What we know:
Layout (H helix, E strand, L loop, with lengths): L2 E7 L4 H8 L15 E6 L15 E12 L2 E7 L15 E6 L16 E17 L4
Antiparallel strand pairs: 1-2, 1-6, 3-4, 3-6, 4-5
Amino acid sequence: MGIIFTGIFFQDDVFDCLRDEIPVHQEDIKNRYGGYHVACCYKPTNNQLFSKEIVDSEVEVEVTHIMRGNGVTAVAVNLPKELKGYYYSKNIPYITLGVDFPHKPVEGGSISSEKWEKIDPFIVRGRIGYLKTRKE
């Protein structure tokens, strides 16, 4: 099995927490994305994989902004200190909440900073891990 990306993965109930914390934006999240995650590294090399000690551990992520644009609604997050050296994207870390057809969740990474709205920060919890390909 190959690894598609490294990241933090959240249970679907994280959507309820996010929705409760930012209720004024519920209308922007008509088309729920699901599969909530923060991607740290797409197609990682062996040197970019997490250390075995932190894989599957639970971490806290601080949600700081809501972002809307490119057909995507997402929230910007601050990564936990455990992952600072493992983030290889040029984009700010984010969790996609909703996607309008025909857009794709990855488009959240290109939302310009002018479209970010600061919100009262709050914490969500997820697990460190990998999204792997299906058996080849």
